[in-house]
Amino acid sequence: MGDLTALQKTIGVSFRDISLLEMALLHTSYVNENPTLARNSNERLEFLGDAILGCVVAERLYQDFPELAEGEMTKIRSALVRRDTLARVARVIKLGDYLYLGKGEEATGGRQKLANLSCALEAVIAAVYLDRGLEAARECIFRLLSDAFSKVSSLNLGIDYKSQLQEIIQSRQQPAPTYRTVRVTGPDHDQMFTVEVLASGVVLGRGSGKSKKLAETDAARVALERLYR
Fold first, then answer.
1. Calpha distance 127→98 (Å, rounded)
2. How much is the pLDDT for 187?
3. Which of 33, 123, 148, 156 would be a feasible disulfide site paired with 46, CB 3.0-4.6 Å?
């Protein structure tokens, strides 16, 4: 295993048990090709790290945005912990340079794959938790996601999903997206609208909300997530 001193300095954590950090960087392909050197990949740590990350981010949103409803917090949490966000953070700290990969995975660009990077970051978070405890893991998460949290705070939910979607669709020389209401449920005083957004007759996303405007915004958000997936 390589020297992980620089990585520990980057994430701000000095491990007592360095083997935990090493395991967090072990891709399944490496374990399969080197069974005598490593018995476990980072998959179990990834599972734990995903749960810890979701909990810590949810707690932060709950404390920092008391005005937000459950649905709004869920959307922001999803944006903060989704694969491309985590992979972007992993690239910033050059986590891919430290991954232990099998020869085949290495040859196919495994160090830059979204899945490998995001999963490794979650595994590292779990390793910090197991080695240093929840508070250290929380501080590490806030440090790693500081830019993402700042963007959420500065936007203050002012994300114009419909305009963003329209710009993308029109940049592809397609007509502007259209919206259609497909369902309205509930009594008159408490209706729930379901709306689909379409481009060139193709449904890009479906959303819901207490008004047509909110439902259209939600549909545009879903469409954007699918386009960038």
1. 15
2. 87
3. 123
